[in-house]
Design goal:
The complex is a heterodimer of chains A (601) and B (436).
Chain A: E1 4-9, H1 13-24, E2 29-33, E3 47-49, H2 53-62, H3 67-74, E4 75-81, E5 91-96, H4 98-111, E6 115-119, E7 122-128, E8 133-139, E9 144-152, E10 161-164, E11 167-169, E12 171-173, E13 176-177, H5 182-188, E14 193-200, E15 203-205, E16 215-217, E17 240-244, H6 247-255, H7 261-264, H8 278-284, E18 292-297, E19 304-308, H9 316-323, E20 334-336, E21 339-346, E22 363-365, H10 375-394, H11 407-418, H12 442-453, H13 458-480, E23 482-483, E24 486-487, H14 488-491, H15 512-543, H16 560-569, H17 574-578, H18 585-600
Parallel strand pairs in A: 1-2, 1-9, 2-6, 9-22
Antiparallel strand pairs in A: 3-5, 4-5, 7-8, 8-9, 10-11, 10-21, 12-13, 14-21, 15-19, 15-20, 16-17, 17-18, 18-19, 23-24
Helix pairs in contact in A: 1-10, 2-10, 2-12, 3-4, 6-9, 12-13, 13-15
Chain B: E1 10-13, E2 22-28, H1 32-36, E3 52-58, E4 64-73, E5 84-90, H2 93-105, E6 109-110, H3 115-122, H4 128-139, H5 143-154, H6 156-180, H7 194-219, E7 221-227, H8 233-241, E8 259-265, E9 268-274, H9 284-299, E10 302-307, E11 321-325, H10 328-331, E12 337-338, H11 347-363, H12 374-392, H13 398-416, H14 421-431
Parallel strand pairs in B: 1-6, 7-9, 7-10, 10-11, 11-12
Antiparallel strand pairs in B: 1-2, 2-5, 3-4, 4-5, 8-9
Helix pairs in contact in B: 3-4, 4-5, 6-7, 6-13, 6-14, 7-12, 12-13
The chains are: A alpha+beta (601), B alpha/beta (436).
Chain lengths: 601, 436
Amino acid sequence: MRDYDAIVIGGGHAGIEASLALSREGFDTLLVTQSLDTIGRMSCNPSIGGLAKGNLVREIDALGGEMGHLADSTMIQMRMLNRRRGPAVQAPRAQADKFSYSRLAKETLEKQSHLFLFMDTVTDLMVDESTRSAAGVVTARGWRITSKVVVLTTGTFMDGRIFIGEYDEQCGRLSEAAAIGLGDSLRRLGFHTGRMKTGTPARVRFSSLDLSEMEVQDGDSPMLPFSFDNERIDRPSLPCYVTYTNEETHRIIRENIGRSPLYGGKIVGRGPRYCPSIEDKVVRFPDRERHQIFVEPEGLGTEEMYLNGLSSSLPEDVQHAFIHSIPGLRHAEIMRPAYAVEYDYLDPLDLYPSLESKILRSFFIAGQTNGTSGYEEAAAQGLIAGMNAAERLKGEKPFILSRTESYIGVLIDDLVTKGTKEPYRMFTSRAEYRLSLRHDTADQRLTPRGYAAGLVTEEKMKRLEKKMEDIRRVKEILQHTRLGGKSAYDTLKEPDRDIMTLGIPALSSYPEQILTEAELDIRYAGYIDRQERELEKARKAENMEIPADFDYDSVDGISSESREKLKTVRPVSVGQAARISGVRVSDIAVLAVAVRSMKRG
Amino acid sequence: MAHYSTGEPVYALATPFSPSALAVIRASGDDSLSLFQPCFTGSLGKAASSSAIHGFIMGKDGHRIDEVMVIKYAKGHGYTSEEAFEIMCHGSLPVIKEISSLLESLGFREALRGEFTYRAFMHGRVDLTEAEAVEEIVRSRTGKASGEALMRLTGSIRDEAEKAKDEILDILASLEVQLDYGEDEIPEDWVFPTERAAAIRRRLESIAATFRASRLWSEGALVVIAGRTNAGKSSLYNALLKENRAIVSPVEGTTRDYIESDAVIAGIPVRLFDTAGLRETGESVEAEGIRRTEDLMDRADLVVYVIDPASDDTPPDDSRVLAAYSRLDTAGESDGLSFSSVTGEGLDKVIDAIGRKLSEDLTETEGVPRIDSERQRGKLLEAAEALSDAEKSLSFGSDVTAMYLQSALSSLGELTGEITGEDVLDRLFSSFCLGK
């Protein structure tokens, strides 16, 4: 008899979703964390969502995850980004009160039945050698706790080390001890690890800012919710501020660049190109006269402000000098320094699309540990890992989302097919079918899937059914209303027409959300059709499953280079195989025919 | 590809189905040698791979069908990499037919077009673009055309497509960076690079246009000899072919339908058509012939319009028409190109003129790599169209514009190999400075 059905290691954004998914499906789950006071901590920027990331949050919500609820209950500003640039690339972004967020996350876990919380540091795994599967964990204080499945979500804590100029310390976050020992244990078990680096900017005191020297950036009104369960958000909205670096800022950074651990060679891990430190930006783009800085509130009831765009690992005296060279920040009181953090990540190529390890059965890995960055990316993986751990406990087939139906599918497929060399962030351009992946359709795409898997509640499913019915009715009304010789439906396909100004009385009883969604469906129908044809091709390849024990050596037409890659990744479908970098197109054609003929034979 | 298979024994005639000194029949598939052995007097089992074995092919009732040489290929050696053999028999049509039906009775099925190449591909002997080019070498009829197909193997089309892809990728990356970062970070609106896109489009279209020129080389130019009845068309036709395949008679309207032959004129492969004479007629059979002639003239790459100098006929006004005046020996020199089918005088000038006229088409597109498949032409035009759709869609939403640019890329990608989202991101990161 095992102590628990499942153990989740880590209480960050991935651990929250994984433990909730498991316990909500009825499995006794233990969440082990180094500190109960830092559950759901937002280590870096105080915001949730953003382009592509906002879509992830809504998809997590559509599947029965928690992140949307947490963000909706704690947001202090919300904006819809890319309003001018087409609905498929729009997404919501919210500033969150990071203290309330963390507290609410802990409260949510505490209220959940079947979920148990325990504070300790996991240092090793228990392994059932006969089946080569995970059997439990060993902790720093000597506990040996058994379970049938284990989910690892350790973020940046595994052998984490922070850097501020010449100063460095073994931490996962500033002044929070790194998890030491687990990395070595995993390497002993045969896991492939690497080093990655990320960073965070300084926090400054609100009352020390010169607000008059900065632009004010207000949020949208009304605020829109992430969760499909919420109709509106009724919360106070705080502004953000915008300022810019200048020649003086850049001079200070250039003169002190030798004191950066990034340039001094102390940090070996690879940092994200899309979120470079300010010293990186100054070095890589010497022609830029200024860089934009967003000054964002960290929460209600706190004066700490986050300097978005100024992440750095330079010594604190240099940080003070360059921050004070920026308008609005000339007298800023610096409360926390910027720092870089370097940590162990596990190669995601060692994972199946279910996020189960290929090296150890019943062992699932999610979040920043897999080489990603961002709360949303972590939460999405946590949810999928939790759901798949539950499927394993039930003895069901893995729960896998495809690239054609979700950003989550794109995220995980990219990770387990291509691996990653830098912290992976979601971008809309990573999704080849993004016209079909609008944030407002996440529920249509995924709620039925979550319901079938047993995570989505009856109530949520009913709400979706009502919404679909409403949209259908709205379209019907539009088809039957004549406007200037043609149907209102066709009128909406013309540029510059707006469903809100058509003046059709029968539509007035429907919420704006429903009307807009119906309108977008109609306007984009032609383009979606075009994409749908491409999608069909992709689905065909996706549905061509490759058996787990497929013998690549038996197909003599595959080049040896491709063969090695295929054997490493062991793709589950011909579609996935085609996306492995460096595998030749003609080899895929050979593989496709071989798989097909095998099925026939 | 659905009907192709590997392993299953297949055969095909590798030489044209026409009377000739020799014909080659190929066969490939599992156990094909032992299937064939009972009907062949030579011993296949002992012979080394790639060696030729002499013997007789015997019918099921024991009669000798033909004396042949058979080349044996052990598994892993021949073109398909399967167990295979080639029969070199006499090129008489009844013999070819009899051997074919014998092979079918032994369990061989007639190979589908391209199936040998498909098998070679499936066994890793050739890759996709090579497979395509091999097809074209097989099809091409002149030295120049096979040279072109060989160039394809070294990838001049690939280079062009890569260049265009690179340019489009640049445009797409500059748009994607706007879509992946909010208005806060990049407040400027994206402007469609009209000039740049137009240049790419023109280039793609001009490559696509070489399809016609390439087809001239590989399939042969369609040359139609037309003119009034009894103008001397069939005599010219025969003179050009240097053989008596059309009936030449002084009675008007003998050639009621058209007759087709393959020839090489001035180095260019030509499908030469002799047609029914054009004249008003009440006879229905002949009227049908005339209708077909007009049809052919519409499709022709070149019409040699033969005129009897004694008549009042004038050539039709069409850039594809070459007027030629007959009966140089009896009627003497006319204003235009004159020839005599009887003495052969002036024929060399007619041939020169045909060659010049046909090559006009080919020089128009110099400096542009030629394509020779309808599929490639389709992909190039698809990409060009997607580019112009991208521009038109900008007022609708830049997410749709990006989709069209992506679709242009994937059309080109299908010519050369796939393109991934990673390529776009790499480009984006190397060219832009981003904060958030």
